[in-house]
Write a structure and sequence with these properties.
Elements lengths: L4 H17 L2 H7 L5 H23 L11 H24 L2 H8 L2 H8 L10 H19 L11 H23 L8 H19 L9 H26 L2 H7 L2 H12 L7 H17 L6
Length: 291
C-alpha cells in the first residue's frame, strides 16, 4: 500500500521519539544515582509541563481532557505508567541483560499486532525485518554473550514480558483512538508522575541530583521522557505503525553509538554486526513505504 505524504510526515515525526529515546541511557547515567521511580516522577513532572505548554498554545481549557472516555485514560496510563512499573519490577527480580532483552520484544510485537488493525496486512518482509532488528538489539544488549535464563528469575522475566506487551499494545491501541488529540498525552504524563511519586515514597529513599546532574534530569524530562511521548503518539496514530515498530530497533543502536562517542562505552565487533542487522532489518521492513 502506498504511503501518503501526510502518513510519511507523521511517521517521520514519530521517528523523532526513537531518536530521543536513544539519548535515554546517556542522560540516565549523567543524572547520577537517582532511584528509578524518583527519576521517572521527576521526568514525567517535566513532561506534564510540556503538555501544559501545548495546551496553552492551542488555546481553550485543558480541563476538557478530564472528560475523555475512561477507556482512553485507561490506555494512556496503562502505557506510560504500566510500562515503567513493570520494567522496574523486572529489573528488581531478574538480571538487567535478560530483563532488557525480553522487554525489547515490544517493537516486534508492534509489527505483528499491527496486522489486526483495519486495512492493514502483514507481509513476510515486515516480520523478517522486525526479527532481524530484534537479533541486532539482542547482540547489543548481551554484548555477544549467551543468555542464562534461570528459574529463580521467573518473576522478573514475566514482568519484562508484560512490559513488552504493555508498550506494544498501548501503541497499537492508540491507533484506535486516532481522533483523540495528542495534547491529551500531557494529562497521562501528569497522572503518571503522581503515581511514580507515590511508588517512590513507598519503595525508595530520595537521592537528589547535584550540579550538572540537574541539567541531565531536565533533558530527560524535555526529551526522551517528555516530548518523545507526544511525537510517538502522533506517529502511531497518523503514520505507518509497522515501519515505526521496526525502526524502533534503531534506538539501542543509536544509544550505543552515542555512549561510544561520549566515551561511556567501547566499540566492538558486536556493535558492527548489530548495526548491520538492525539497519538491514529496517530497510527490509520499510518495503511498506514503497509505492
Amino acid at each position: 500500500m502506498a504511503s501518503s505524504p501526510m502518513s510519511a510526515r507523521a511517521t517521520l515525526i514519530g521517528f523523532t521519539a526513537i531518536v530521543m529515546w536513544a539519548t535515554l541511557a546517556l542522560l540516565t547515567q549523567l543524572s547520577g544515582p537517582i532511584p528509578p521511580f524518583q527519576l521517572t516522577a521527576m521526568a514525567f513532572t517535566l513532561a506534564f509541563g510540556v503538555g501544559g505548554i501545548l495546551w496553552w498554545r492551542e488555546g481553550g481549557s485543558p480541563w476538557r481532557y478530564l472528560k475523555l472516555p475512561v477507556a482512553v485514560w485507561a490506555v494512556g496510563l496503562f502505557g506510560l505508567f504500566g510500562y515503567h512499573f513493570f520494567y522496574f519490577l523486572a529489573l528488581r527480580h531478574a538480571p538487567a541483560v535478560e530483563a532488557s532483552l525480553i522487554a525489547y520484544l515490544w517493537p516486534l510485537l508492534i509489527v505483528l499486532m499491527s496486522a489486526w488493525l483495519p486495512g492493514e496486512r502483514l507481509r513476510w518482509f515486515h516480520g523478517v525485518g522486525a526479527m532481524l532488528g530484534f537479533l541486532g538489539a539482542g547482540l547489543l544488549i548481551t554484548q555477544g554473550q549467551g543468555l542464562s535464563l534461570r528459574a529463580e528469575y521467573t518473576t522478573g522475566y514475566l514482568a519484562a514480558l508484560v512490559c513488552a506487551f504493555t508498550w506494544s499494545s498501548y501503541s497499537v491501541l492508540s491507533r484506535h483512538f486516532g481522533a483523540i488529540p495528542t495534547q491529551a498525552v500531557g494529562g497521562f504524563c501528569g497522572v503518571t508522575a503522581l503515581l511514580a511519586w507515590m511508588c517512590h515514597g513507598l519503595l525508595e529513599t530520595s537521592v537528589w541530583p547535584v550540579g550538572w546532574q540537574w541539567l541531565a534530569v531536565l533533558a530527560l524530562g524535555l526529551g526522551p521522557v517528555g516530548l518523545a511521548f507526544f511525537t510517538w503518539d502522533y506517529g502511531v496514530k497518523q503514520g505507518n505503525l509497522r515501519t515505526l515498530g521496526t525502526l524502533s530497533y534503531l534506538a539501542p543502536l543509536l544509544s550505543t553509538l552515542l555512549l561510544v562517542v561520549a566515551g561511556q562505552a567501547d566499540p566492538s565487533w558486536t556493535l558492527l554486526l548489530a548495526s548491520g542487522l538492525i539497519v538491514g532489518g529496517a530497510l527490509l521492513a520499510s518495503g511498506t513505504l514503497k509505492p
